[in-house]
């Protein structure tokens, strides 16, 4: 808790700032006084008074900043001015602050809407809007709506209120560093914000707006998918279910990627908003625009598609234009610069659980059969991914030089939308950035300086991606989404200048690398050997999707195998879905009454480097006693040593999130021996994911 002395010092500093502002308010409220000045003169100092490390030395230690600040002159239109977090969890933002130049009234629909739009995708309960003259706290739990934005302001203070001890205390015990660390924002949301149903009426929201970002954007994707499938079917009635699913997926991937490029400022000019100009239809401009972007960016998203880009294919342009207009509306709730790639990935994970079913003249979007049997799609929460990456990859990179880190090979053999691959790539980028920033003269091909801060070049990040990241999935749409997610992560910190400067330096080289040899489609559990060496028909190969890992990734296995196999494999019990086991019963690891993830674990151990490779899986906790897991236990006993097991026991919140009760991390050993390992069993039935995240944050290895 904050001490009385800390409070008094903070209040004295705040009073001094308030008096300074009052004494020369005519100047500070004039149009000559700009946002950059008020941030430097007042807002930065105010949050320093509240105990925040606003002046952190980013060159010395860029990844351990509790306050991340966008430079006013370089600020992207999609990022808040300040993002506040608490050490050691620097990637978990607690609240955003949007700054404006001082005015008589900053509580406008546009300003409030903007502040909400930053916070809503992150699931944060409040946003802060300030020009120092005023400070407003805004309820950001609901879908941004320009018409209700000002009504969501729940607390307001004038700069003169800083002279009043009680009013300053309201601010201090909500937004000071010590108060936020002690959970003040959660308490405020629980006790001071109106209950969701009451708030929806209070803010005059439609019922559909009272929901979180993930559900909202998924519903929007589903709506667009069904709409596009219908117009595609009408344009070409002979398209089958698989073709329609593929066409709709590629169209949405292109639109979302373009919006990402626009909102990030990587594409300096509007793209989608200009569709339909020059006497062409929206669709024709879309196809032409994708052709142009393919020459710049490469990657699977813009590659010519045999159906979408065919000259005779012309779906209803009016329907397509409505989707484009909705995406580019100035008051769209979706700004892709403020939506973390990880969040898009977990939404896509759920999106991939459905397909388009083509009927004679109509279409229907239906849940996949395997998803229906599994009871739905489960994504892995970001904090679980971060914890597993830290525990398994951290020791692999510790004290290694960059050239040795670039030799690491990591794979997710059931990668889905790529959440674990994104986590691994981000970790490697962070680790290598920290290394190179400590060097006096890093190579220009590795590091570039932007606004006084060193960043890895796009060229070097491409090298990390191509060298280190691999993935496999049986679903071709998942493979495309995983590639898309990695491309988004690759470009996440780029700007218009940095991206296109790289393009100019590398003449003839596209900005995005081809990932066709890194992220591939196939069945990780089936090889020709498993089928007894029979020659497959084309139809049989298409059905089974056999994949020979050593042939698919020859350079990896020439070097001994993968350094890390990581992921959340599918959980399918044979008695609930016998068809899923049709092509694995000849596997040496198959036995009756098993779960299919046992096969993924056994195969994963086979693909690791002997003596050093690590397996990191989310697992069920009954494999240690289940009769159907005997061969898995034998495999681990013979070829590996367990390093960590975290058993979530009856923690219902983890099960609801699809975490099958355990994190298992094992290292290839080949030397059977008795040893001790780190085992924890966690008990409880807490109600929220925030509780679960807080619990994991207390475990070792959670600091990134």
Structural class: alpha/beta
Shape summary? globular
Radius of gyration: 27 Å
Low-confidence stretches are: 531-541, 700-704
Q: Strand fraction band?
A: 5-15%
Q: What's the story with the biggest beta sheet?
A: 8 strands, mixed
Number of strands: 18
* Percentage of residues in helical conformation: 40-55%
Average predicted local confidence, pLDDT: 86
Q: What spatial order of strands do you see in the largest sheet?
A: 13-12-9-14-15-17-16-18
CA-to-CA gap between the ends?
Answer: 24 Å
Compute the number of helices: 27
Tell me about this structure.
Helix 13 packs antiparallel against helix 19 and helix 17 (419-437) packs parallel to helix 19 (476-491). Mean pLDDT is 86; it is low at 531-541 and 700-704. The protein is built from 27 helices and 18 strands. By secondary structure, the chain is an alpha/beta fold. Strand 10 (447-450) and strand 11 (453-456) form a beta hairpin. 42% of the residues are buried. It is globular, with a radius of gyration of 27 Å.
């Amino acid at each position: 808790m904050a001490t009385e002395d800390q409070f008094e010092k903070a209040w004295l500093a705040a009073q001094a700032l308030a008096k300074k502002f009052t004494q020369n308010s005519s100047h500070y409220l004039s149009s000559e006084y700009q946002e950059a000045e008020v941030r430097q003169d007042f807002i930065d100092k105010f949050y320093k008074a509240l105990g925040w490390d606003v002046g952190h030395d980013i060159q010395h230690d860029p990844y351990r900043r509790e306050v991340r600040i966008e430079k006013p002159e370089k600020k992207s239109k999609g990022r808040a001015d300040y993002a506040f977090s608490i050490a050691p969890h620097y990637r978990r933002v607690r609240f955003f602050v949007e700054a404006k130049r001082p005015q008589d009234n900053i509580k406008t629909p546009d300003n409030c809407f903007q502040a909400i739009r930053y916070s809503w995708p992150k699931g944060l309960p409040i946003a802060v809007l300030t020009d120092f003259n005023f400070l407003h706290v805004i309820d950001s739990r609901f879908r941004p709506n320009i018409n209700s934005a000002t009504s969501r302001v729940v607390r307001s203070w004038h700069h003169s209120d800083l002279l009043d001890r009680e009013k300053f205390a309201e601010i201090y015990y909500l937004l000071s560093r010590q108060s936020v660390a002690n959970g003040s924002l959660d308490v405020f949301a629980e006790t001071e914000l109106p209950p969701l149903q009451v708030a929806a009426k209070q803010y005059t929201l439609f019922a559909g707006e009272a929901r979180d970002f993930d559900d909202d954007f998924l519903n929007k994707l589903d709506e667009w998918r069904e709409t596009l499938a219908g117009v595609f079917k009408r344009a070409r009635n002979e398209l089958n279910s698989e073709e329609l699913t593929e066409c709709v997926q590629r169209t949405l991937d292109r639109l979302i990627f373009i919006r990402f490029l626009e909102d990030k400022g990587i594409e300096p000019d509007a793209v989608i908003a200009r569709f339909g100009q020059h006497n062409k239809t929206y669709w024709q401009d879309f196809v032409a625009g994708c052709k142009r972007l393919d020459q710049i960016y490469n990657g699977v998203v813009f590659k010519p598609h045999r159906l979408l880009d065919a000259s005779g294919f012309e779906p209803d342009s009016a329907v397509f234009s409505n989707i484009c207009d909705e995406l580019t509306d100035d008051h769209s709730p979706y700004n892709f610069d403020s939506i973390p790639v990880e969040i898009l990935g977990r939404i896509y994970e759920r999106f991939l659980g459905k397909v388009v079913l083509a009927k004679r003249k109509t279409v229907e979007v239906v849940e996949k059969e395997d998803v229906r049997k599994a009871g739905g799609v489960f994504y892995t929460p970001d904090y679980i991914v971060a914890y597993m990456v830290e525990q398994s990859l951290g020791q692999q990179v510790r004290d290694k030089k960059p050239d040795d880190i670039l030799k690491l090979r990591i794979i997710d053999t059931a990668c889905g939308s790529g959440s674990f691959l994104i986590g691994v790539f981000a970790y490697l980028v962070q680790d290598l950035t920290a290394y190179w920033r400590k060097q006096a003269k890093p190579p220009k091909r590795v590091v570039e300086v932007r606004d006084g801060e060193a960043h890895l070049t796009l060229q070097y990040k491409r090298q990390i991606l191509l060298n280190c990241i691999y993935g496999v999935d049986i679903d071709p749409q998942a493979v495309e989404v995983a590639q898309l997610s990695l491309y988004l992560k690759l470009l996440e910190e780029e700007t218009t200048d940095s991206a296109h400067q790289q393009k100019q330096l590398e003449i003839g080289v596209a900005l995005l690398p081809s990932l066709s040899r890194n992220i591939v489609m196939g069945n990780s559990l089936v090889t020709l050997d498993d089928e007894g060496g029979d020659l497959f028909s084309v139809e049989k190969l298409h059905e089974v999707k056999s994949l020979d890992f050593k042939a698919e990734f020859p350079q990896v296995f020439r070097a001994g195998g993968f350094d890390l196999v990581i992921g959340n494999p599918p959980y399918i019990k044979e008695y609930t879905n016998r068809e899923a086991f049709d092509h694995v019963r000849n596997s040496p690891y198959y036995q009756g009454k098993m779960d299919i993830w046992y096969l993924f674990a056994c195969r994963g151990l086979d693909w690791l480097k002997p003596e050093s490779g690590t397996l990191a899986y989310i697992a069920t906790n009954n494999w240690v006693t289940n009769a159907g897991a005997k061969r898995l236990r034998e495999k681990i006993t013979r070829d590996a040593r367990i390093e960590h097991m975290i058993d979530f026991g009856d923690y219902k919140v983890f099960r609801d999130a699809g975490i099958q009760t355990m994190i298992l991390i094992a290292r290839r050993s080949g030397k059977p021996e008795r040893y001790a390992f780190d085992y924890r069993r966690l008990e409880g039935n807490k109600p929220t994911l925030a509780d679960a995240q807080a619990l994991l944050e207390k475990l070792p290895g959670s600091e990134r």
